[in-house]
Write a structure and sequence with these properties.
Elements lengths: L3 H13 E5 L2 H5 L2 H10 L8 H9 L3 E8 L2 E11 L4 E9 L8 H18 L8 E6 L7 H16 L3 E9 L8 E8 L7 H17 L3 H12 L5
Parallel strand pairs: 4-5
Antiparallel strand pairs: 1-2, 2-3, 3-4, 5-7, 6-7
Helix pairs in contact: 1-5, 7-8
């Protein structure tokens, strides 16, 4: 449920800009999109251009941008998971020129709405929105820890909650695994953390990144053997 603050933000958002959802060809040539993407996420957390375009060809992702005052102000990548059905917000970033202006909090209610619509195209119900955040308990520096806690607090103010179990992003593109936590925004009272993690692993990381089954099973066991739902 979106609170009054979020409803007000969404209303203001409609007056100031608009979302554009891109097809594969548009994404491939959206240079400003890729600039925001590479500036916002470390290499170990970035899918390649080919992988993101593949997700559009497979019709399991919704990739777009938010345009404000004739510039690209933010980018979004949503994946549609099945069994259980939910949206996985893999990337959400605001362009440097638009940061610290409350744009992210204004966009989030619209992302929730678009995520539900995307999942409900193929399903009768949705668990809501799930996303990754870096785990501040294993931050390399105090500055990193501060930024990661600030990011979690940002989502908590918008109604997000942190799962109890840890989550590890599989190694992609010859990089290392990345300790993460999963957050969620849902109207459901009970969510199976392990089932959600398994869906992300096998429906996103295996299909799009080519991660092998053994690595994914090992990560599931590492995260959830001693942390039942």
């Amino acid at each position: 449920m979106i609170n009054n603050l979020q409803q007000k933000a969404a209303s203001t958002l409609q007056l100031n800009g608009h979302f554009e959802w891109l097809n594969a060809d548009e994404l491939a040539h959206a240079h400003d999109w890729w600039d925001i993407y590479t500036q916002s996420f470390p290499l170990a957390e970035r899918d390649t251009k080919q992988q993101l375009i593949l997700s559009l060809h497979k019709n399991i992702a919704l990739i777009g941008c938010y345009r404000l005052q004739n510039s690209m102000a933010a980018i979004v990548v949503l994946y549609r998971m099945q069994a259980p059905a939910f949206a996985f917000l893999h990337y959400f970033a605001v362009a440097k020129a638009w940061r610290n202006k409350s744009l992210g909090s204004k966009l989030f209610p619209t992302i929730l709405t678009e995520a539900d619509k995307f999942v409900l195209e193929n399903n009768q119900e949705t668990l809501g929105l799930i996303w990754e955040v870096e785990d501040p308990t294993v931050a390399q520096t105090e500055q990193d820890r501060y930024i990661q806690i600030k990011r979690i607090n940002f989502y908590e103010r918008l109604g997000g909650k942190v799962f109890n179990s840890k989550f590890i992003q599989p190694a992609i593109n010859n990089q290392n695994t990345v300790p993460m936590q999963l957050m969620y925004h849902s109207t459901k009272k009970k969510l199976s953390e392990q089932a959600i993690a398994a869906a992300i692993y096998f429906q996103k990381y295996q299909v799009i990144n080519g991660t092998d089954t053994q690595q994914l099973n090992d990560l599931l066991n590492l995260c959830y053997t001693n942390n039942p739902d």
